[in-house]
Amino acid sequence: MRVLVVDDDPDLAEVLSGVLRYEGWEVRTAHDGASAAAGARELLPDAVVLDVMLPDTDGFAVLRDLHTVLPGVCVLFLTARDAVEDRIAGITAGGDDYVTKPFSLEEVVARLRGLLRRAGMARRIDEGPRLVVGDLAMDEEAREVTRGGDLIELSPTEFELLRFLMRNPRRVLSKAQILDRVWSYDFGGQAHVVELYISYLRKKVDAGREPMIHTVRGAGYVLKPAAGR
């Protein structure tokens, strides 16, 4: 599970990030609107903990920008303001929940878990290193992949590519994003590497079955459950 923490107080952001990492989640921090937008594009978070008051903008504007990149991301607002009008503004802007400062760290974790469960990510939270998309399953610790119960043998690079796709089901991932996360390459001139390994994965994951790996012309690739799953 990936969480982006956006707060202009570096100490608070670091404490909160430490608690979330202890939960086993991947966490990145940002301290203003500009770095939040950049962090969201790189991390592709499942949830964002977002302070309403930021030095260069407000959290509502950041949320609007986030939704252009990640329309389904869960957002938990943090604020020192407890007025009913502020809560309504946060929810109206597209936030999913609202916590006022000072807050307990346990409350933030509990609320995030609740948001992610309601968003349909409960299995990823509860099963730890096991990722499941339709009938495709990956045990990250054992490094085993099955589809419909059948074991699929993957090379280390194929495994990392599939893991990135499975951590972002139904999200279109560009070749640049895939290169950055799987190979740590800059995009220039390396598109053929992604195309080649996507073709390898298709031969192993989709062979003789309803396809799960799809090309979105001009945008990238998306993994989603096969029809009827």
TrEMBL record:
Q: Which GO terms describe its cellular component?
A: cytosol; protein-DNA complex
Q: Could you tell me which SUPFAM superfamilies the record lists for this protein?
A: CheY-like (SSF52172)
**In its UniProt record, which GO terms are filed under biological process?**
regulation of DNA-templated transcription
The record's keywords, sorted A to Z, are:
DNA-binding, Phosphoprotein, Transcription, Transcription regulation, Two-component regulatory system
Gene Ontology MF terms = phosphorelay response regulator activity; transcription cis-regulatory region binding
Q: Which residues form the Response regulatory domain?
A: 2-116
The domain of life is: Bacteria
PROSITE patterns from the xrefs? OMPR_PHOB, RESPONSE_REGULATORY
Q: Which Pfam families match?
A: Response_reg (PF00072), Trans_reg_C (PF00486)
- Where 4-aspartylphosphate occurs along the chain? D51
- The residues that make up the annotated DNA-binding region are 128-225
Domain OmpR/PhoB-type intervals? 128-225
Q: What is this protein called?
A: DNA-binding response regulator
Q: Where does this protein come from, organism-wise?
A: Streptomyces populi
Q: What is the lineage of its organism?
A: Bacteria, Bacillati, Actinomycetota, Actinomycetes, Kitasatosporales
